[in-house]
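USER:
Working in pairs, take the chain set out below, taking as long as you need, and write a paragraph about the fold.
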Amino acid sequence: MSEINIIDASAILAYLQQEKGQETVEAALDAHLSLMTTVNYCEVLSKLCEKGMPPGEAQAAVNDIGVILVDFDPDLAFRAAAMRPRTSHIGASLGDRACLALAQKTADNGDHPILFTAEHLWLKLKWPFKIVAIRASRGVS
């Protein structure tokens, strides 16, 4: 069993844009293997392009971080869909559920995922993995 970081789009964006919580994300990226779904990758690229960064630069910026991309395959799609009823009251988007599904799958495989996000509402639910809210004063569940 190994410790694996799951990085949400919000955490990657905080890191790249040097926002509050970026130092927590930087330490996580330096400490352990870090994974992100391709849905969250798309979300990050979209936000960077929306803010005026050329697509190629956005892609290079994310790729340079060294996070490993995990395909949003049928298993992750099923897991994310199954989470919808449980997470709708906290406003979890498809991207949110993709990230949570990857953490769930990683935990089910016997590893110890730590999910890094700026979404403090995720702390309201019980998960079989640790969540670090990078901007919360009490950031761990």
Q: What stands out?
A: The chain has a mean pLDDT of 93. The first helix runs from residue 9 to 16. The domain at 3-133 is CATH 3.40.50.1010 (Rossmann fold).
